[in-house]
Amino acid sequence: MPHTVSYKNYEHHTGTRAQAMAPSKETAQALARAETICRAHGVRLTTIRRTVLEALYSSQKPLGAYELADLLASNARRMAPITVYRALDFLIEQGLAHRLASRNAYISTLHDDGSQEATAYLICDGCGTVEPASSAAFAGALSDLLSRADFEPRAKVLEVAGHCSRCQGHGHGRH
Ligand SMILES: [Zn+2]
Q1: d(C-alpha 95, C-alpha 78), whole Å
Q2: Of 41, 48, 71, 98, which one is least surrounded by beta carbons within 10 A?
Q3: pTM above threshold 0.85
Q4: Residue 1 falls within a domain, yes or no?
Q5: For residue 74, how far is its CA from the centre of ligand 1 (angstroms)?
Q6: Which residue intervals of 76-158 are DSSP H helices?
Q7: What CATH number should be reported for the domain holding residue 92?
Q8: Is the CA virtual torsion 21, 25, 26, 31 positive or negative?
Q9: How many Å lie between the centroid of ligand 1 and the Cα of residue 151?
Q10: Tens of pLDDT, residues 70-129
Q11: Structurally, how many domains does the chain consist of?
Q12: Is residue 104 part of a domain?
């Protein structure tokens, strides 16, 4: 598969995602891709799993499990946290979501075109922002590294902790 996802594209789309409640074309496309992945794995993307994935995908930021439950409560029936956790476990197992360990928050690994290219999450210790970053060169290098190690990744996600441009040189945002 060619590496066509650039950070620019990613950013362009994230700006418009959260506004619409009805699934956008991108969301529908990403969810269709998720269905295909699940079918290939011989598992079912149930309504609950799909709803949780859609919420993660539509969010502009990583979501904690409780945040996710609150969000879902506002536009659907309330889901018990255990239900949300089970759905998250499933999505992680299928490589459709990832838990950012340093934030204990969840993200969708699907891009707008339904691909799952490698993404580096730049996590600021100062202000807490999490910015996705990706490039063809990065994706290519990671694919190369993985194939040489004969390693099958569940999700191509890298977490990089540090300080964003705004927080650098300001006492690392602690003031
Ligand atoms: Zn920052």
Answers
A1: 25
A2: 41
A3: no
A4: no
A5: 29
A6: 81-93, 136-148
A7: 1.10.10.10
A8: positive
A9: 33
A10: 888 876 567 788 889 999 999 999 999 999 988 889 999 887 766 778 999 999 999 988
A11: 1
A12: yes
